[in-house]
Design brief:
homodimer, about 425 residues, alpha/beta, Aldehyde Dehydrogenase, Chain A, domain 2
Chain lengths: ~425, ~425
Amino acid sequence: MKTCDIIQNAVGAKKCLAQLSSEQKNNALLAMACAIEEQAEQILAENARDMDAAKGKISDVKLDRLLLTRSRIQGMADGIRDVVLLPDPVGRILTERTTADGLELKKIAVPLGVIAIIYESRPNVTSDAAALCLKSGNVCILRGGKEAYCSSHAIVKAMQDGLKKEGLPAELINIIDDIGHESALELMQAKGMVDLLIPRGGAGLIRNCLENASVPCIETGTGICTVYVDADADQEMALRIIENAKTQRPSVCNAEEICLVSREIAKAFLPKLKKLLVDDRKAAGIVPVELRLSEEAAAIIDGTPASPSDFDTEFLDYILAVKVVADVREAVEHIAQHSTHHSEAIVTCSEENANYFAANVDSAAVYINASTRFTDGGMFGLGCEMGISTQKLHARGPMGLEELNTYRYVIKGTGQVRK
Amino acid sequence: MKTCDIIQNAVGAKKCLAQLSSEQKNNALLAMACAIEEQAEQILAENARDMDAAKGKISDVKLDRLLLTRSRIQGMADGIRDVVLLPDPVGRILTERTTADGLELKKIAVPLGVIAIIYESRPNVTSDAAALCLKSGNVCILRGGKEAYCSSHAIVKAMQDGLKKEGLPAELINIIDDIGHESALELMQAKGMVDLLIPRGGAGLIRNCLENASVPCIETGTGICTVYVDADADQEMALRIIENAKTQRPSVCNAEEICLVSREIAKAFLPKLKKLLVDDRKAAGIVPVELRLSEEAAAIIDGTPASPSDFDTEFLDYILAVKVVADVREAVEHIAQHSTHHSEAIVTCSEENANYFAANVDSAAVYINASTRFTDGGMFGLGCEMGISTQKLHARGPMGLEELNTYRYVIKGTGQVRK
């Protein structure tokens, strides 16, 4: 189908979805989950076509992201069932008052309308995004990467079959058929029809959306996250936190990329850091972390000399840029200049320094004595996540169901006019 | 001063302002109000220069907006003192929980940072916007219209003198000196430095900002507001509401521009509407409302035949587009096609139709049996207003102090790492 027709269909389906009760939406979600299980064979067959076409053309990491297995399909269905259990965000009364004129004023959470999601090669984003949009009362338009074309279409077909079983229109969940660049641009510029665009993927995709979108867009994901080890830190705790933030899953946005160390303890701390991240890992036969060192750090331990750009790079790899700073003030200054305002941590036993850090680091999530890896909708108690916003307007940090709503004032009167 | 230097100064002042206590901010506001009173003579003299230069060049309405009097200056000082009385939005704990991992998580309201306001000829926007930004912890960069150059600079000078008296840097309140188009463009594109741009003025200014801004921008103001008179309406109430919504202050964004009337009562209602808005006003010697009528309405009463564009125009004048519709469903449909999603009203005694209207009209404010003129920060109990957002992201409807904040998650741990 042509992209403009798909967008039109989505707009037409808004009203139907906005009027569904929580029970109707939950039944639809359950039917979608069942249909995915029932159509597992077809989904696997379509995924095999994608895999065959992609082999040799994309990296092994990307191939693994593209691959579906029986258990991954089960995971998709279970993920949809998890969304059933979350509270319905639509219709929440956010404030309620009787005005001086006797008007009954309510501020009510309502769906945004049509949400477009442009993503890359992971087919499970398809079911994940569709379920969150449906539960929050929004019609979705999905545009997956071309490598996952057959897989994501098969998943959408199953979900649409689930909707139809519940007597609901298939147009509550839409997927773009045209995988050319024009279709992405058409979505980005469907002003007045697409109420929110969420890019999910690498820095290039996000930049492309931000530069070309005339529809409202949420900047997600890029994380140049910093851990600052204060002079007053419990150094053993700092080592555990850095090891976790850097190496537990280096390819994700809440992984640490930069380590700042207070000058007062640098000579004592940096050799322990190198032992943990480089020497011990080599000895254990696991991949060591490459340390990219500022001049002062390089005078204390061995490593790669850092280039200036190393402090502005999201490595997403076993690489850590390390710098010695004077104190918490210089650390905050460095973060203001170099971070992407995603997640930053301080390790310290000084309450004063912790408070200074929390008050002055202007990032979505600021940690005191904990790993940056916790920035996540599930960990924050939102139950789910549509992405992590690194902007300040509307939603900041993990976006759950509530962040996929807007609000409307409904005012009941008895004929009041303004004096 | 060069615009780029002013922007740089504003960014540099963010940290100072974010750390001020409520008391310090309130003392600063009181000092600003006093300084405006003390420098009233100088402000009036500078305003006289603006008025002399503008005479013959701008309309009488605009000249009146530009004019300052002793009482208008007093109004500015009083307006600042009103802001002192409002609660400080910064530091509110929006949610608080202990996570499964034992992390103490707080979602805390924090200032956006630097807010730029581009406005037109009313000099009092200068003090109004500066006071709201300061109270909400934001450094402001003001760019007024060129006609008000001397007036707004004199007002800013007074406010900065007030800040200095309190030992605070003048750079908490900034005004652009260069009145060329380039300076507006520079503000719109100061990505990473300006955290929010708010245009306050006519449709042209707002469109210009939306089209050119790469910084986050809030769409404000344009209001093509509708009143729908249902078959079940109390017709006398409908007449009072329409008279108020259309004629009490036709030049503002929450005034009515479109009247939809149910076919069932059109023959009875429209003659009464014409008598009230046209004949009675002519007889009383006050300006009559020009009715622009759909074909069906024109078959019932006299008036100007409506062109299609009349239902997509913000007249801001004594003009009302009138159309006969089948029922509440067609009214909702018309609003979806033609309104700017600002404020719409239904007049009806039918609870069913009222609920249908409230559930399906996707505008910032939806009224049942009340005038659209109530959409206003003061009327809604926000205490003040920085503008009325017609977009769905971040803030919708009147923007008060809370809407000038974002939030940050602060997470305290005891060394937790992610499993």
